[in-house]
Amino acid sequence: MTRSTPDSCPGVLRLHQAADGPLARIRVPGGRLEPEQVQALADAAVELGNGHLELTSRGNIQLRQVRDAAALADLLDAAGLLPSRTHERVRNIVASPLSGRVGGWADVHGLAVGLDAGLRADPRLADLPGRVLFTLDDGRGDVSTLRGDIGVQAVGADEFALLLAGADTGVRVTASEAIDVMLDAARGFLDLRGTGDDGQWRLHEIPGGAERVTETLDRSPAGDRLELGATHTLPIGWLDQDNGLVSLGAGVPLGTLPARTAEFVAAVERPVYVTPWRSLVITDLDEGPAETVVRVLAPMGLIFDAQSPWLQVSACAGRPGCAKSLTDVRADLTAAVDSDRVLPGEPGTAEMLVPAEDVTVAGRQHWSGCERRCGRPTGPVTDVVATPDGYRVDPS
Ligand code: SF4
């Protein structure tokens, strides 16, 4: 498959002209933000955007209705959030958020830093499509469910499975080899994808792509292959770290974080991880301060209860952010949550067409303003898609 339209992934230096104004996407490799960076993003949202931070399904941050692109770039540059002007859109790296603190075989956050530096050091890798996703899974099988293009998953303390196009290649590498092998795989993908914006955006779009890239690496695959899971447990609520400290997993309803709430998160003065499940993990807290953080941030709307219906739902931008949308899906979904029409349990099996005020769905669900279903998570999800005649509930 080749493309007839250019890769239009937004960044900080190339904004997307959304229906409600210019949109900027800020890459956060490995999801890690220092408190000062959270504060800088809150400042940017208030001074230059619509007052909210949007968390994306790749653990990045979006700002909407950006009024001054140059001022935004300067602000982010000063905060260390724009370390490259040539490679900014290719720094899509997600890592297991709890790695090194709670469980897992290995701490992959160092790999995220090294991979980001390696990407930025090779001028050719600036040509990667902005859609390419790198995943660094510490062995718990969380970010591997995203089915990235290039990644590793720990299978031992110093052994990683190389994943390409969302599957295990059989190649095994050590931590010290992992970054170079992933960068070589990225170069192999560039060789295969064709030139310019007419080439494929994702490795899985190339027939036999994973096998062909593996051949270029000159490494013998092992016999056994990992079966990657489709689901995992969200890091929500009180999470005891292996070192006696506490992490707090906080869901962000529909991934929209008000700048005022972000300021309170920054004031905790601890490293924060943005997850690809539109939540935050605030790390390295003592127990007393952790209790205070929950008492302050829960009333502001952050979700610390793993049973909350907000953790079952996601939605595309919808109106007014997207001109293609048939309706304001986020308002309709919010009404469904507020009126207890998002239910626990297993999804239904029958497809149906119902008015917005009657949509009642159990289990994991994604609401979309049109058939494109932007932001749809991987794994088992019921689609709730706007049509001219109401929402189509499709437990596909
Ligand atoms: S799914 Fe459709 S309405 Fe929603 S953001 Fe994508 S294009 Fe727009």
In short:
This protein has helices spanning 35-48, 69-78, 109-121, 175-193, 209-216, 259-267, 287-297, 329-338; strands spanning 16-18, 21-26, 32-33, 52-55, 61-63, 93-95, 134-137, 150-156, 159-164, 167-173, 237-240, 246-251, 256-258, 272-274, 279-285, 313-315, 342-343, 352-354, 361-362, 365-368, 382-387, 390-394. With 396 residues, it is an alpha+beta fold.
Explained architecture:
The protein is α+β, with helices and mostly antiparallel strands and 396 residues long. 24% of the residues lie in helices and 23% in strands. It folds into three domains: 90-231, 2-Layer Sandwich (Sulfite Reductase Hemoprotein, domain 1), CATH 3.30.413; 237-306, Sulfite Reductase Hemoprotein,Domain 2 (Sulfite Reductase Hemoprotein, domain 2, Alpha-Beta Complex); 310-394, no CATH class. The chain has a five-stranded antiparallel sheet with strand order 1-2-5-4-13. A five-stranded antiparallel sheet has the order 3-14-15-12-11. It has a five-stranded mixed sheet with strand order 6-7-8-9-10. Helix 1 (35-48) packs antiparallel against helix 6 and helix 3 (109-121) packs across helix 4. The longest helix has 19 residues, at 175-193. The radius of gyration is 21 Å and the shape is globular. The mean pLDDT is 95. The structure holds iron/sulfur cluster (SF4). Iron/sulfur cluster is lined by residues 316-318, 322, 324-325, 368-370, 372-374.
